[in-house]
Amino acid sequence: MTPDQIRKLFRASAIALGLPLAAAVAAADAVSFAKLDANKDGYIDVREASASPKLVELFARADANKDGRLSREEFAAIASMLK
Ligand SMILES: [Ca+2]
Ligand SMILES: [Ca+2]
Fold this sequence. Notes:
Layout: H1 3-36, E1 44-45, H2 46-49, H3 53-62, E2 69-70, H4 72-79
Antiparallel strand pairs: 1-2
The protein binds calcium ion (2 copies).
């Protein structure tokens, strides 16, 4: 595949997967995500995660793109394991 084809494929997948996931996140986990995101930057970093011992445990696994913080989507993927 050419880089251009890969980009097109990626964009199509993001559209297919992104919208329903975002809706589910907003409905199910807005409260706990907002509570953990103390500085309201839209991400849970390691320090914010330390408010929940269980989340600290899951943090490395939850951080799918390894940028050191959890997006709403990353948080949603592990949220069911926090309960
Ligand atoms: Ca934050
Ligand atoms: Ca991340």
